[in-house]
Amino acid sequence: MAQQEFQGLSNETLARVWFALGLAEARHPAEFIALRDAAFAELGARFEPTELASFLDEHLKAYPAADDSAAQTGKTPAPASAGSVRDSYPA
User: 18 is in which domain, residue-wise?
Assistant: First the structure.
């Protein structure tokens, strides 16, 4: 059964949301892990396990992982710091 917060999202959009939440969770684990896991559970409910892996590979290949991106550019992502623009958003 679809979770209410994900109703109306296409599979492609939900995959991008899950990917983005994974990136956010890497910087702020306490804030995003539950929502990231819920998005992945929803994807799991929509696909068979073998179908999900190939779907994610196909639809997220345009978004390299942070490690891949750093290797390509020679730069490492900057950690979130207190006082950054991100910290000014309402909770």
Answer: 9-64
